[in-house]
Design goal:
Keywords: Acyltransferase, Amino-acid biosynthesis, Arginine biosynthesis, Autocatalytic cleavage, Cytoplasm, Multifunctional enzyme, Transferase. This protein is an alpha+beta fold and 395 residues long. The protein has 2 domains: 263 residues, L-amino peptidase D-ALA esterase/amidase, CATH 3.60.70; 118 residues, ArgJ beta chain, C-terminal domain (Ubiquitin-like (UB roll), Roll), CATH 3.10.20.340. It contains 11 helices and 16 strands. The strands form 2 sheets. Strands 1, 2, 3, 4, 5, 6, 7, 8 and 10 form a 9-stranded mixed beta sheet that branches. The chain is globular.
């Protein structure tokens, strides 16, 4: 498996475009991904009981298992918009289907932005009229952004079944990130041939250890969505569970999901540092993941990291709130510096560790020494800028 340059349209048979539909004052704000042929589609969505109209629509598409397009707008979330919002999602779907001669039920619709605002359908119609199969594929990653500071992409290649299989991913997410799987949106394309049921099973499993292990501010969005299209145009033999080909495909998808998740965490609103928490030796992997996510989601830990304060007591306090474990044998390392051994404080040079905490990648490793469970989670520091961004978001 190798990482290569590319766009969301790099896998065979895909195209993409992005335009400025004037949903934002400036910048691209409407994008589309198209497949030459109907593709298997899998998806995972927000667990928030208040979910957006596009989430409702896309859940129905996943049940049918086929799609040929994904359209996404930024600036307006189309969430908490009642029946008018639902009708606008359907109208968007139909306009795309009519323009590109697709089956309407094969068009997935996604939105991100301010909650409680209706989509401006005249602007949507004008924007959709400008979309093309041969437009600006690199622009799609820009068009889906809201408060993000950078685009987030990854492109991979792997030989599977004697054929070169490509997989590309893009995502957005900066605030309202606590998927129990923001808005957090991720779109993945691949030309691999794989059954929809196996694609869904694989994506759902990998979400648990990747996108569901990131947190910026502890809020789960109304619109969180991860979608993957697999159109089979690499012409590989169909990937079957339990085979070498499946292992290679799963490894590709896991890397795409993990890299995109880490990029979201690193681009948290106002963030200056990516925090990676690794928990080892828990009773089981679920406990390890819960503890890791509890640590990285702690406001006290996040502010200490922002201030380069080696206050390991905040980390230990977070551990104790997350899951059962033996309390007598905890080891804790911060930036590779041992600060706790057998649950006993270790002398360390605070000024030296504080300097290491000024780096932009922060590592926290916890060994509970009570089992074989391992897990990781990713987040970011909590800064003054986060408060500023969210205090002024709708103005």
């Amino acid at each position: 498996m190798k990482e290569v340059e590319g766009t969301i349209a790099s896998p065979k048979g895909f195209s993409a475009d992005a335009v400025h539909a004037q949903l934002k004052y400036k910048n691209l704000d409407l994008g589309i991904i198209l497949s030459e042929v109907p593709a298997a589609i899998a998806g995972v969505f927000t667990t928030n009981k208040v979910y957006a109209a596009p989430v409702k629509l896309n859940r129905e598409i996943i049940k049918n298992g086929k799609a040929q397009a994904i359209v996404c707008n930024s600036a307006v979330a189309n969430a908490v918009t009642g029946d008018e919002g639902w009708q606008n999602a359907l109208k968007t779907q139909k306009m795309i289907a009519d323009k590109f001669n697709l089956v309407q039920e094969h068009v997935a619709v996604c939105s991100t932005g301010v909650i409680g605002v209706q989509l401006p359908m005249e602007k949507m119609a004008t924007g959709i009229s400008k979309l093309s199969k041969v437009g600006n594929p690199a622009g799609f990653a820009q068009a889906i952004l809201t408060t993000d500071t950078k685009i987030k992409t990854i492109n991979l290649e792997e030989e599977i079944g004697g054929k070169i299989v490509k997989m590309s991913g893009v995502c957005k997410g900066s605030g309202m990130i606590h998927p129990n799987m923001a808005t957090m949106l991720a779109f993945i394309t691949t030309d691999a041939k794989i059954a929809q049921s196996l694609l869904q099973k694989t994506l759902s499993a990998l979400i648990e250890t990747t996108f569901n292990q990131i947190t910026v501010d502890g809020d789960t969005s109304t619109n969180d969505t991860v979608l993957i299209l697999a159109n089979g145009m690499a012409a590989n033999e169909e990937i079957l569970e339990g085979t070498k080909d499946y292992l290679l495909f799963r490894q590709m998808l896991e890397k795409v999901c993990q890299v995109l998740a880490q990029k979201i965490a690193a681009d948290g609103e106002g963030a200056t540092k990516l925090i990676e928490v690794t928990v080892k030796g828990a009773f089981d992997s679920l406990s390890a993941r819960l503890i890791a996510k509890k640590i990285v989601g702690s406001s006290l830990v996040k502010t200490a990291i922002f201030g380069a304060d080696p206050n390991w007591g905040r980390i230990v306090s977070s551990i104790g709130q997350a899951a059962d474990f033996e309390v007598d044998d905890i080891e804790l390392k911060i930036q590779d510096e041992l600060v706790l051994y057998h649950s006993t404080p270790v002398q360390f040079e605070a000024a030296f560790l504080s300097e290491k905490l000024k780096e932009n990648m922060i590592s926290i490793v916890v060994d509970l020494n009570c089992g074989t469970g391992n897990g990781q989670a990713w987040g970011c520091d909590l800064t003054y800028k986060y408060v500023e961004i969210n205090a002024l978001y709708t103005s």
